[in-house]
Amino acid sequence: MNTRVVARPILVGVDGSAAGTAGLGWAVAEARRRSVPLQVVYALEQRHSDAFTRANPLYVADERREAEAVLDAAVGYAHGLAADVDVRPVLEVGSPAVVLLARSAAAEMVVVGSRGRGGFAGLLLGSTSLQVAAHAPCPVVVLRGVTGPAGPAGRIVVGVDGSPSSELAVRFAFTRAQQTGRGLTAAHMWHAPAGRVDLRWSVGREQAEKEAQALLEDRLVPWRERYPEVDVVEKTARGNAAAVLIGESAGAELLVVGSHGRGGFGGLLLGSVSHAVLHHARCPVAVVRQ
């Protein structure tokens, strides 16, 4: 008996904002490339009490009509970009993060646009993009307002630290590089030994650098063998991992990081790599969770 395999859709959240439209454009291109359906999701937040709803049915109805108009416009925009993509509108009542997370278990990927009001002080920890990136069981791609399309030579950048979540990020990055014909930059950061600057410190620093290069080469061996056609550049750098990855993100097509997932972003320090790049990367960021 033949069992029909149903393609898992890509989810994209829209709200009528420029950031949402940017995310929609990215998601349309990805759905077309993967030949999977695209679910365009609008979450209608109704914070009214039951008493208000009963007393103001016309106001509540107007809110829904406005939401439907935004969703219809988004679907029209998606069809205009790629008429051959199976676009499915979804209008649900609830907070955007809750609605997207509820659907993410059956999704191939979730794409969200972040309005990004200027770094950590401007983005609340509970924002939709952070909540979804922290808790969705599938890869999440976040586009911030400052990001733009990659140039013709835009590479895919992936952070490598040897952890299980990093391995998932590397797999995701190599697969995308192979499918899109992009080059791949694999970056691993290391730290010099603590202590005073003397001959022993210099020797220790050289040893730390060699160990970092060996770790990176070792982690990439199976992926180079599996994807021999991918142009890979290995980069080791001393310093803060987030700062190095953010620097590499300029002109990149996509930055891929793993999330160690110690209880979501609420359980991580503000300076964590995945959290920092979501706020400051200059290209779309894909967060791949275990």
What is the molecular shape? elongated
Annotated CATH topology of the largest domain? Rossmann fold
The profile of the biggest β sheet is: 10 strands, mixed
Helix amount, in percent? 40-55%
Low-confidence stretches: 117-126, 147-151, 262-271
Task: Assign the CATH architecture of the largest domain.
Answer: 3-Layer(aba) Sandwich
* End-to-end separation: 33 Å
- Per CATH, the class of the largest domain reads Alpha Beta
The averaged pLDDT comes out at 83
Strand order of the largest sheet: 3-2-1-4-5-10-9-6-7-8
Which structural class best describes the helix and strand composition? Answer: alpha/beta
Question: What is the CATH homology-level superfamily of the largest domain?
Answer: HUPs
Short descriptors:
290 residues; Rossmann fold; 20% strand
Could you characterize the architecture of this molecule?
The longest helix has 28 residues, at 199-226. The protein is elongated. Strand 4, helix 5 (128-135) and strand 5 (140-144) form a beta-alpha-beta unit. The protein folds into 2 domains: 10-144, HUPs (Rossmann fold, 3-Layer(aba) Sandwich); 156-289, Rossmann fold. It has helices spanning 18-34, 50-55, 57-81, 96-104, 128-135, 164-180, 199-226, 241-248, 273-280, and strands spanning 10-13, 38-44, 87-93, 109-114, 140-144, 156-159, 184-190, 232-238, 254-259, 285-289. Helix 4 packs parallel to helix 5 (128-135) and helix 8 (241-248) packs parallel to helix 9. The chain is α/β, with parallel strands linked by helices.
